[in-house]
UniProtKB/TrEMBL annotation:
InterPro entries: ClpP/crotonase-like_dom_sf, Enoyl-CoA_hydra/iso. This is Enoyl-CoA hydratase/isomerase family protein. Belongs to the enoyl-CoA hydratase/isomerase family. Pfam families: ECH_1 (PF00378).
Length: 199
């Protein structure tokens, strides 16, 4: 595949009336937000070019798996706009965020991997298998545990460290209230067996 997403079609956008263009932009933004805040992890397999609006969608995902064909460009600055200011900082550090968003330059697979934009870099023929393998590993865990971790991570962005810590403590108390050891560690107990409870 040549591209994961090359972004919006400029020629198509030119032909839209202003009201229609605003409506389409709002739909894209809503879709991206729903991806970012989904209670389930969403992993991106970047099989080629990821440019413009495609980078916004990609950086809204939980994390990315790339291959030698992966490349990224945050193009909004080239036409006087802005994007990914809210999503890219959660993946790479501020100095790199500023460089990528200010310049709009291309980032190839090796650099993307070393800066943390993609979590794993594999040969293109292994890309889907690697992505499915990681997803399957996550799916073995309790769904509510994964969802709660994701929710806290999203809520914590920009908060002071102590507030993040207190939220986690409160979350364990509230979200897992009433969850017995039997419920929480069922898989472990099924494998290892259950010792008789002391009377």
């Amino acid at each position: 595949e040549r591209a994961f997403s090359a972004g919006a079609d400029i020629h198509e956008n030119r032909e839209l009336a202003d009201a229609d263009r605003e409506r389409v932009t709002a739909l894209r933004s809503d879709f991206t937000w729903h991806l970012a805040t989904s209670s389930k992890p969403v992993i991106g397999a970047i099989n080629g070019l990821c440019y413009g609006g495609g980078t916004v969608m990609a950086t809204s995902l939980d994390f990315l798996i790339g291959c030698e064909k992966s490349s990224f460009r945050f193009l909004a600055v080239n036409y006087g706009q802005m994007n990914a200011t809210w999503s890219l900082p959660t993946m790479v550090g501020w100095p790199r965020v500023k460089e990528l968003l200010y310049s709009g330059r291309e980032v190839f697979a090796d650099e993307a991997y070393h800066m943390g934009l993609i979590n794993h870099l594999v040969p293109s023929e292994q890309l889907i298998d690697k992505t499915v393998e990681i997803a399957a590993g996550i799916a073995k865990n309790r769904a509510e545990g994964v969802a709660n971790i994701k929710q806290l991570l999203l809520e914590h962005t920009g908060l002071p460290l102590e507030e993040q810590f207190r939220n986690e403590v409160d979350g364990r108390r509230g979200r897992f209230a009433g969850l017995s050891v039997e419920d929480g560690f069922k898989d472990f107990l099924d494998r290892k067996g259950r010792k008789p409870l002391a009377s």
